[in-house]
Write a structure and sequence with these properties.
Blueprint (H helix, E strand, L loop, with lengths): L2 H30 L11
C-alpha cells in the first residue's frame, strides 16, 4: 500500500505551507506594529 506515505507527504506539505503562511503574517504584523509584537513572548 503506497497510499499512506503519499497521504503523509501531502499532509506534511500542507502543514508546512500553513505554518509558513502564519509566520509570514506574523512577520508582516511585526513590521506594521513597529516590532512591539515581536518583543512579546511567543506562546
Amino acid at each position: 500500500m503506497r497510499l499512506f506515505p503519499l497521504l503523509g507527504t501531502v499532509l506534511l506539505s500542507r502543514v508546512f505551507r500553513h505554518t509558513c503562511s502564519w509566520l509570514w503574517l506574523y512577520a508582516l504584523l511585526c513590521v506594521a506594529l513597529d516590532k512591539s509584537v515581536c518583543q512579546a513572548p511567543v506562546m
